Amino acid sequence: AQKVTQAQTEISVVEKEDVTLDCVYETRDTTYYLFWYKQPPSGELVFLIRRNSFDEQNEISGRYSWNFQKSTSSFNFTITASQVVDSAVYFCALSVRNAGNMLTFGGGTRLMVKP
Amino acid sequence: NAGVTQTPKFRVLKTGQSMTLLCAQDMNHEYMYWYRQDPGMGLRLIHYSVGEGTTAKGEVPDGYNVSRLKKQNFLLGLESAAPSQTSVYFCASREIAGAKNIQYFGAGTRLSVL
Fold first, then answer.
1. Which of A59, A85, A106, B87 could disulfide-link to A6, CB 3.0 to 4.6 Å?
2. Residue A110 contacts B, CB cutoff 8 Å
3. Residue segments in chain B with a per-residue pLDDT below the cut of 50
């Protein structure tokens, strides 16, 4: 069985601060995919990034960056110079090649960025 | 581009009533999913479909039924609603090709069962 843990249930920062959202996963599969989704106050789920288990390169997209470390089973997400518009719930998720590649979600981290 | 469309957006039911949630996607995706989101628990898979005419159970299937009569539509039914089914329901779809393997979600349906 797969498991995703987001230990930080809520984080509050002041605008322009950097913030890192932690994600730890468990799986026995050697082939798997990791995802981050954003859920703004409006409620929809917005895809941010996908990473497969064979690609440990870190990725940067604008103010967002992701650090994938298989040795610690972690896939952390950093927002640099946070903005009020970053306020949302962020979900980390994992899928493996069974059960239709279903997503196993963490409990989510609510990020509040204050002006 | 519409993407994944869910109807209705909100619904209030009384215990024992039935209803159907509709999910429609216009991306020609093979796979479709129904999840529920409860506070502090992330999303959990209810049922999924790997193609027209096929369905399978997910993590929390009890009390729900699904049908995939057309490729673009995936219906979630509650035959006899219970207060424990108060939740936000999300539909998602994805391509069959492994290179993408990204699920795209609808805007959600907020259901309250009194």
1. A106
2. no
3. none
Residue A65's identity, in one-letter code, is S
Cβ contact A108–B40 (<8 Å): yes
How many Å lie between the alpha carbon of A99 and the closest alpha carbon of chain B? 7
Whether A11 has a pLDDT exceeding 70, the answer reads yes
Instruction: Give the pLDDT score at B99.
Output: 58
Q: C-alpha distances in angstroms, B100 versus A1, B32, B48, B93, B97?
A: 23, 14, 18, 12, 6
Considering only CB atoms, which chain B residues are within 8 Å of A100?
31, 33, 48-50, 56
Q: How close is the nearest chain A Cα to the Cα of B42, in Å?
A: 4
Say whether B42 and A99 touch across the interface (CB within 8 A): no
Residue B7 CB partners (closer than 8 Å, separation 6+): B21, B22, B24, B109
**Residue B29, both tokens:** 């995706």
Query: How confident is the prediction for chain B on average, in pLDDT?
Result: 92
Spatial separation of the C-alpha atoms in residues A39 and B102, rounded to whole Å: 16
Distance from CA of B47 to the nearest CA of A (A): 10
| Closest by Cα among B87, B71, B34 to A100 | B34
